[in-house]
Specification:
Blueprint (H helix, E strand, L loop, with lengths): L2 E4 L22 H4 L19 H20 L7 H10 L4 H17 L10 H9 L2 E7 L5 E5 L1
Antiparallel strand pairs: 1-3, 2-3
Helix pairs in contact: 2-3, 2-4, 3-4
Length: 148
């Protein structure tokens, strides 16, 4: 038997307009220095060029995020990664910063500051063929994972 999962993340609650990045990892500040985050993501699908307003929003988002990352001696977030966070929040910079903060908090809380895709247990599960990420997406554009 197979189970198909698909996920879209939305936020219905209003966003607090206070600055959010300095507070990331207050509980897990010691873990912040150990984070190894790949920032060489490819450009999001669609291929459309950004409008002037979207480019300005991306620069503002990157300025805030990279200031926070530089204080923790992390590499800068790539342009394409920033665009992905902004696209998820319709280029609303404050909402995208909240999403990024939630992303970082979850990584710290769940111990996902470093991910070794070649580790034994993960490779064993992948080789068994029980987990497959399909190359297509659902009608809403979400990734589809097949668990058998």
């Amino acid at each position: 038997m197979a189970t198909i999962m698909s996920a879209n993340i939305t936020q219905d609650k209003p966003v607090n307009s206070t600055p959010i990045l300095p507070g990331i990892g207050e509980k897990g500040a010691a873990n912040c220095e150990k984070m190894d985050i790949s920032t060489t993501n490819s450009r999001p699908p669609g291929g459309a060029e950004l409008s002037m307003e979207e480019e300005v929003a991306t620069r503002k988002f990157l300025e805030n995020v990279n200031k926070w990352r530089a204080a923790r001696e992390l590499t800068e977030l790539s342009w394409s990664s920033a665009v992905k966070f902004l696209m998820a929040r319709k280029f609303n910079v404050e909402r995208a910063l909240v999403l990024y903060q939630q992303h970082e908090i979850m990584r710290i809380r769940e111990g996902l500051t470093y991910f070794d895709h070649s580790s034994g247990p993960l490779q064993a599960e992948l080789k068994r063929g029980k987990f497959t990420v399909l190359p297509c997406r659902d009608p809403n554009g979400a990734t589809i994972a097949l668990l058998t």
